[in-house]
């Protein structure tokens, strides 16, 4: 597929989508806490402090704990904005810390409601039903990041199993949405759950990948059985680079077992910011041809959420980063992988394609490539994150595209790491949403990378 011949169609689709964006297409960041976003965007030290804070949040047990860590990290920030200075003074005493924790919780809760659809799948059911009614599918992600003991991994697996049953109840009896329920390869499940391997095992370590893989497999198999029984799709998210081999091996090994040939529908994630992602995609495509399953493997193509982490980690060790260091390289690779996926499917590879991006250009390019390869609207799933992709989601649904929204479910403390990661990612000067929010012209937003 020649990218040059695709280009006029990419531009036309991009313009149609932009015209369909609600609220004049300023993007979701304008609606968030602008001050927090501006500070985080402008101040590298503050970004670094928040970045370190993310790592400890899952281990915090209370608001007091959370406030103590936050003030400790902010201590490193040299030129602090007045509101942060005031917050740090509050963190000096126990009562102040509780107040800071409480105040942070109010602000965070307001922001969190945009990103997190409920504390439990039952809480989330009204949002999930409303999305479905408006022609939008969901993939539910149970928040709760670091798992350090087997008991925590067991609890996460049990929550996932319960969620599959609860979600089957939520979606039963909802009206038919043909675009979301079948594609050229056959029926597709209504219920869709995303799971994290790092939550399924405390043993996911780069120095002993087999140990983590085996331990996670012991919890993944019962979940796959449960998903099959509930007629649900199970998607395994991708995390940082040091776990990629173990996660990919886990999914491909378990799904290749005879017992799972008949189902459930399942999927993996490919991160386009990785230099080795083209080779990873070839591995996945070879696997799909060698292992015929009742449901084709879904490949969710993303750019990757751990860019800062991968770069910092590599610099610390004196390695060349495994990720591209120029944003346009990730964008170009994302487009090349998109074309490879649609061409492989057109050539008979049993693969379903999900394009997960808020970048109008990346999405328009995928729609154009799918069309040119002969795919219909149901054959390309476009995925967005709740709270960040709401406007794009509306534009995609309004223009007759198949769209699914990734919906985190969980409590506030577990949600903090997720929230801060989204904040960091989207206040980066190189983020599409940042460019959109700061009024970059459409020509620039849609330009080929
Ligand atoms: C439904 C859904 C599911 C997701 N699941 C996962 C998942 O399982 N695993 C995962 O890792 N991510 C996941 N993500 C997040 C995703 O990887 C991106 O971080 C996010 O979508 C931003 O990319 P974009 O195309 O929307 O925006 P853009 O603004 O176009 O791209 C931003 C991305 O570009 C890359 N980038 C930024 N700066 C540079 C640079 N200097 N050099 C090279 N590359 C750079 C980074 O990947 C950054 O996130 C998911 C996203 C969605 C929408």
The largest beta-sheet arranges its strands as 1-4-5-6-7-8-9-10
Number of strands: 10
Q: What is the name of the CATH topology of the largest domain?
A: TIM Barrel
- Main β-sheet description: 8 strands, parallel, barrel
What is the mean predicted local confidence, pLDDT? 88
Give the class-level CATH name of the largest domain: Alpha Beta
Alpha-carbon distance between the two ends? 17 Å
- The fraction of residues assigned to DSSP E strands is 5-15%
The oligomerization state is single chain
Helix content: 55-70%
Structural class: alpha/beta
Radius of gyration: 21 Å
Q: What's the architecture of the largest domain, going by CATH?
A: Alpha-Beta Barrel
Give structural notes:
The chain has 449 residues and is of the alpha/beta class. The chain folds into two domains: 3-23 and 117-409, TIM Barrel; 32-111, no CATH class. Helix content is 57%, strand content 12%. It has an eight-stranded parallel barrel, surrounded by eight helices. A two-stranded antiparallel ribbon has the order 2-3. Helix 1 (3-20) crosses helix 17 (390-398), helix 3 (44-56) packs antiparallel against helix 18 (412-427) and helix 8 packs parallel to helix 11. The mean pLDDT is 88. The structure holds flavin-adenine dinucleotide. The site of flavin-adenine dinucleotide has 32 residues, from strand 6, helix 15 and strand 9.
């Amino acid at each position: 597929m020649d990218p040059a011949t695709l280009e006029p169609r990419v531009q036309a689709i991009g313009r149609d989508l932009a015209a369909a964006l609600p609220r004049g297409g300023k993007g979701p960041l304008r609606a968030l806490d602008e001050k927090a976003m501006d500070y985080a965007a402008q101040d590298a030290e503050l970004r670094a402090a928040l970045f370190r804070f993310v790592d400890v949040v899952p281990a915090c047990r209370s608001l007091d704990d959370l406030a103590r860590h936050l003030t400790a990290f902010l201590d490193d920030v040299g030129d602090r904005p007045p509101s942060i200075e005031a917050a740090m003074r509050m963190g000096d005493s126990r009562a102040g810390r509780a107040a800071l924790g409480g105040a942070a919780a109010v602000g965070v809760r307001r922001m969190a409601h945009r990103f997190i659809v409920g504390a439990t799948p039952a809480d989330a059911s009204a949002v999930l039903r409303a999305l479905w009614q408006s022609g939008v599918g969901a993939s539910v992600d149970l928040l709760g990041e670091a798992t350090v003991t087997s008991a925590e991994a067991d609890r996460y697996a049990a929550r996932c199993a319960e969620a599959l049953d609860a979600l089957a109840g939520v979606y039963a009896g909802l009206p038919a949405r043909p675009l979301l329920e079948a594609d050229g390869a056959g029926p597709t499940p209504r219920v869709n759950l995303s799971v994290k391997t790092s939550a399924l095992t405390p043993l996911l370590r780069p120095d002993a990948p087999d140990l983590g893989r085996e331990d996670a497999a012991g919890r993944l198999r019962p979940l796959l059985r449960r998903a099959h029984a509930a007629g649900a799709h199970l998607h395994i998210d991708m995390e940082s680079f040091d776990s990629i081999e173990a996660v990919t091996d886990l999914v491909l090994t378990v799904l290749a077992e005879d017992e799972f040939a008949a189902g459930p529908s399942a999927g993996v994630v490919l991160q386009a910011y990785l230099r080795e992602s083209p080779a990873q995609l070839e591995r996945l495509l070879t696997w799909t041809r060698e292992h015929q399953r009742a449901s084709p493997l879904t490949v969710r193509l993303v750019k990757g959420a751990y860019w800062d982490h991968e770069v910092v980690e590599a610099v610390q060790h004196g390695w060349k980063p495994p990720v591209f260091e120029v944003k346009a390289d990730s964008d170009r690779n994302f487009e090349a992988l998109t074309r490879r996926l649609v061409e492989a499917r057109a050539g008979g590879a049993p693969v379903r394609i999900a394009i997960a991006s808020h970048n109008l250009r990346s999405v328009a390019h995928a729609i154009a490539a799918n069309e040119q390869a002969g795919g219909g609207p149901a054959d390309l799933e476009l995925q967005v994150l709740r709270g960040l992709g709401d406007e794009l989601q509306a534009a995609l649904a309004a223009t007759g595209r198949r769209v699914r929204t990734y919906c985190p479910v969980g409590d506030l403390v577990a949600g903090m790491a997720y929230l801060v990661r989204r904040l960091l990612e989207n206040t980066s000067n190189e983020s599409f949403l940042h460019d959109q929010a700061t009024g970059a012209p459409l020509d620039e937003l849609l330009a080929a990378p």
